[in-house]
């Protein structure tokens, strides 16, 4: 048995038949079947996802101690790494706790993508593949509804947003935004380490952009799964570590944006004012000096005139 057959048996067929059963139960609405299926997957993934979210909260709580270690052992990288690992162990936190849930979800994403393509197929070869992967009892239940209703708000859930165009481009944007917001809520400060800060910032931005690009080139049904899954993750993380991460706009500096848009620059204006005041002072002192010189000249001229008058009287 090859890898493809193992994947089909343990991932594709169970997910495909679960979607078909939900479709027949929820009034032949495939978009609703995807949402309920996403909720069920998140519930099943709770034993893996919840420790990841709790570990993120513990990492946030350890940031004051990490900053102290950074100040104390900043020049000794080896000792700093040992002390940090010791602190992680004592605090019950792990910086690598998010790797396992992400790796486990990759087969689910691939299986869901293939399940959506097969379930919403409407061409003869696609329908043949669908019939081969359906379980017997479900085949009798769903056969009258094939081909399935694959539309949601005018969007074909089996087609990529890059093909449909129009408002479907909002789905990849929502995927990237909700994933970025969830990552921001789970992100931990770097504890004063510039390298760690740069890496955390890159991961917080690059992962959502990557998934947004993937969503652009995969079926819109998979984008719907990503959005619902991210929203559930945001709500769960909010109850664990608080809702401060949702106030993402508070970290933005409107002054810098105003500078980019051509707004006033206070520092330069104050410098210009000081230069203007200096110039006015210099001009004032120059005028005062010139007036004093003129008064001296005037005084000298009046003295000469008095001497001439005296000579004439004599």
Structural description of this entry:
The chain is mainly alpha-helical and 314 residues long. The chain has one domain (3-246). The protein contains 14 helices and 2 strands; from the N terminus they run H-H-H-H-H-H-H-H-E-E-H-H-H-H-H-H. The chain has helices spanning 3-25, 30-44, 46-61, 63-73, 77-91, 99-119, 124-133, 136-142, 161-164, 170-186, 194-217, 220-241, 254-260, 266-313, and strands at 151-152, 155-156. The chain has a two-stranded antiparallel ribbon with strand order 1-2. Strand 1 and strand 2 form a beta hairpin. Helix 1 crosses helix 2 and helix 2 packs across helix 12. The longest helix has 48 residues, at 266-313. The N and C termini lie far apart (142 Å).
Summarize the structure.
With 314 residues, the protein is mostly helical. The protein has 14 helices and two strands; from the N terminus they run ααααααααββαααααα. A two-stranded antiparallel ribbon has the order 1-2.
First-to-last CA distance:
142 Å
Order of helices and strands: HHHHHHHHEEHHHHHH
Indicate the mean pLDDT.
76
Separate helix tally: 14
Number of domains: 1
Strand % is under 5%
Instruction: Tell me the radius of gyration.
Output: 36 Å
| Unreliable segments of 5+ consecutive residues | 254-276, 292-297
As a percent range, the share of helical residues equals over 70%
Structural class: mainly alpha
The main pleated sheet reads as: 2 strands, antiparallel
Shape: elongated
Major β-sheet strand ordering: 1-2
- Give the total of beta strands: 2
